[in-house]
Amino acid sequence: MSSAKAKETRTPRLNELFDDLSATLKDFIRKHHVTYEEYHRTLAFLTEAGEKGEIPLLLDVFLEVTVDDVDHSGRPGTATTVEGPYYVAGAPELKSPCVLPHRANEPGDVLIFSGTVRGTDGAALGGAVVDFWQADAEGRYSHFNIATAEAPFNLRAKVASDHHGHYEMQTWVPSAYEIPKSGPTGMLIKALGGHPWRPAHLHVRVTHPGFAPLTTQVFLKDDPWIDSDVVGAVKQSLIMGMTRHDSAAELKKRGLSKPFFTLDYDFVLPHDMAKAA
Ligand code: MBD
Ligand code: FE
Q1: Which of 121, 133, 146, 185 could bridge to 156 as Cys pair (CB 3.0-4.6 Å)?
Q2: How far is CA 105 from CA 88, 261, 272, in A?
Q3: Closest C-alpha residue for ligand 1 atom 7
């Protein structure tokens, strides 16, 4: 596409979206007779969200599910769901099988997360990158956790699948995630009478040249919040049970001293239509 054409198409889209957004908000103000007091409270709320770095959290909690729904509708392969606010670019590149960066005394139970990356035609994809992140066993995302010490890129990595498309990483079972109560997003959820919890989940962004990137999450079956995610991002096909392993032989094989869990999940990527065309 020439840059002249890019310019030509960009401005009308911005005008179309901004004009409708503006009209929608003005209608909203009239419909609800929004008062000056409410307007000023809204400004204060958004200002605080900005100052505390919560704009991505706020928008991802309330709006991103709808963007995923609209922009990924009808897409074949593994179900997508939202990226959320805690992805960090530049995680270390590791080869499968691997152990994720972690603290010397990483809390919780070991989880072996593995599976195969395929295209929608069923072909295994070697060299696919599973860019992975999660909250730890105490609900903290590295880089967003100022309270406790952590390893660089704690429980984050880009794991390359082997030539069978197989990936395997050792991590630690995540806990459910609570939207911070101290900030404006958490206060708003509380004022609305909702709970601030997301069920335990593993985040991935899976990529391979020639295929459309897949951003999704894998959820743990027995989580108490599995049916009431504050974000509304759970899809049935993304819910998995873990298997517990406690035999002496299995512990020895893995070099572990207490029971661990495994979870297998295969990722299926659609062909990149934009590139194929
Ligand atoms: C999260 O951990 C998350 O994954 C999303 C989508 C929103 C808020 C917190
Ligand atoms: Fe998350």
Answers
A1: 133
A2: 23, 18, 42
A3: 84
pLDDT tens digit sequence for 73-126: 999 999 999 999 999 999 999 999 999 999 999 999 999 999 999 999 999 999
Q: Is 214 in the pocket of ligand 1 (CB under 6 A)?
A: no
Find residue 160's DSSP bridge partners. 95, 129
The 10s digit of each residue's pLDDT in 21-61 is 999 999 999 999 999 999 999 999 999 999 999 999 999 99
Q: HSE-up of 242 (CA within 13 Å, CB side)? A: 23
Cα dihedral across residues 251, 256, 261, 263: positive or negative? negative
The DSSP letter of residue 78 is S
What are the distances in angstroms from CA 195 to CA 181, 199, 222, 235?
A: 10, 12, 18, 19
Q: How far is CA 123 from CA 96, 176, 244, in A?
A: 18, 34, 30
Architecture of the domain made up of 77-276: Sandwich (2.60)
Helix pair 184-191, 55-62: axis angle to 10 deg: 40
At CA 205, angle to CA 200 and CA 206, rounded to 5?
A: 125
**How many Cβ atoms sit within 10 Å of the Cβ of residue 192?**
7
Structure tokens at 248: 């002496």
Domain ranges (residues) in the chain: 3-68, 77-276
In the structure, ligand 2 is a single-atom ion and the residues with CB under 5 Å from it are 84
Q: Is 85 in the pocket of ligand 1 (CB under 6 A)?
A: yes
Closest to 134 measured CA to CA, from 67, 94, 88: 88
Q: Which atom of ligand 1 is nearest to the CA of 233?
A: 6
